[in-house]
Design goal:
By secondary structure, this protein is mostly helical. It is about 80% helix and about 0% strand.
Length: about 110
């Protein structure tokens, strides 16, 4: 029972992290950003859809430079992705703290 609780807690934390990270992706225009799923399967499906949309947005953006090359737009993209990468550092730190807190809560009865 404890193993299943730990597994589900880890999966829910990881899926929540991925959803929040993908929703902050600089080029995302079509992804639903504030929808959370109440179960693991729904969360995995949501992450999968968001990942696909982010990937499509990235490919479309790269292709758009073929038709309309723009140094200003390229610099703006570079800045957006740099900011996104910096933001990920804070998100990873938050993920680490959340893992620690959740696992402490779940494993407390074992001590």
């Amino acid at each position: 029972m404890i193993k299943a609780s730990i597994t589900l807690a880890v999966l829910s934390i990881v899926l929540s992290f991925l959803m929040s990270t993908l929703s902050a992706f600089p080029l995302t225009t079509k992804a639903t950003t504030n929808s959370e799923s109440s179960n693991i399967t729904g969360g995995a499906e949501q992450v999968s859809k968001q990942f696909t949309l982010c990937y499509e947005d990235l490919i479309n953006d790269i292709a758009s430079f073929q038709d309309d090359p723009s140094l200003e737009r390229a610099e703006a993209r570079k800045e957006a992705f740099t900011d996104f990468a910096r933001d990920l550092t804070g998100r990873y730190e938050g993920l680490s703290k959340e893992f620690g807190n959740r696992l402490d809560t779940i494993t407390a009865p074992l001590h």
